[in-house]
Amino acid sequence: MQGNQVLPGKTTSGSRGRSLLAKISDSDVAYSWWHSPVVVIATAVLLVLVLACLFAPLIAPYDPFDPASLQLMDGFSPPMTTSSFSGNHYLLGTDAQGRDILSTILHGGRVSLFVGASATLFAVALGVGMGLLAGYRGGFADAVVMRIVDVQLSFPAILIALLVFGVARSVIPPSLQESAAIWVLIFAIGLSNWAQFARTVRGATMVESHKDYVAAARIAGKGPVKILATHILPNVMGPVLVIATISLALAVIEESTLSFLGVGVPPTQPSLGTLIRIGQQFLFSGEWWILFFPALTLVLLALSVNLLGDWLRDAINPRLR
């Protein structure tokens, strides 16, 4: 038998990969994506922004956080200008300290994306877990979880994040506050956004738990944890994915809002919100680019994620088209 011969009934990893790609390309979701020009453009914009921020240390023209490389005489340089003092070319101009706006946006967007994605993952994990518990167990557990959800949804998420952030900062020793600021921010934003996941998963779990396949799993002797993990959870993740996509944009905006208010990331690790807060100080003095380009980046990021979330909702549930 030849070494490269494939036995009957056996498939190679390459054929499995090709079959998987063929299934994806022939799916209704892929068809919907290809025939939605706005969604294609939003995907391209989001990929460009995410990749540019992830590889900011490699593609940023300058290091905006290296004091030794800053040229104070280049401060307030307009976009598309070359400094007569240092000879540096600034595509989007510079701020008051001579920092390249493009470089600060790339590094600041990296922080905003990390905080937003981490907070969304935390909110998904907490909300899905609490929703599964409330929907499957019912009774007292359901009543407690849902009352907490009702109370939290009665307040704006930004106020809850401010409260959690303030309480956490008061508990952490002053010497550790700056180093732990990002993690406290992730915890605060995630804790302010988990309720919508819990409510959605709870309702879906209550529906799924009364179906025949769950009853069959109980008769087969499977425990509640295994039933939730292997049977119910995969069937409730569709709505969760849609909410998570939209929540990512909301988390990035929430982080930018907190940083704009001065209670977000420390000044040594500025995000898009910090850059916008700095830029608004010079808006009426003529240096519009310091505010405009970070704000434009935040708008493009949030808008592209929201458009993808809306499309994903319609693609998963064709009845909404």
UniProtKB/TrEMBL annotation:
Q: Where the protein is mainly located, per its record?
A: membrane
- Please indicate which superkingdom the organism of origin belongs to: Bacteria
**GO-annotated cellular components:** plasma membrane
Enumerate the Pfam families for this protein: BPD_transp_1, OppC_N
Where does this one sit in the cell?
Cell membrane
Which Gene3D superfamilies does the UniProt record give?
MetI-like (1.10.3720.10)
The UniProt entry, under InterPro entries, shows: BP-dependent_transpt_permease, MetI-like, MetI-like_sf, OppC_N
| Membrane topology annotation | Multi-pass membrane protein
Show where the ABC transmembrane type-1 domain sits: 109-309
Q: Which UniProt keywords apply?
A: Cell membrane, Membrane, Transmembrane, Transmembrane helix, Transport
- SUPFAM superfamilies (UniProt xref): MetI-like
* Bilayer-crossing regions: 38-60, 113-136, 148-168, 180-197, 232-253, 288-312
- Name any Gene Ontology BP term: transmembrane transport
The family database entries (PANTHER family) matched by this protein are listed as: ABC TRANSPORTER PERMEASE PROTEIN, OLIGOPEPTIDE TRANSPORT SYSTEM PERMEASE PROTEIN APPC
What family name appears in the similarity comment? Belongs to the binding-protein-dependent transport system permease family.
| UniProt-recorded name of the protein | Peptide/nickel transport system permease protein
- Give the source species: Alloyangia pacifica
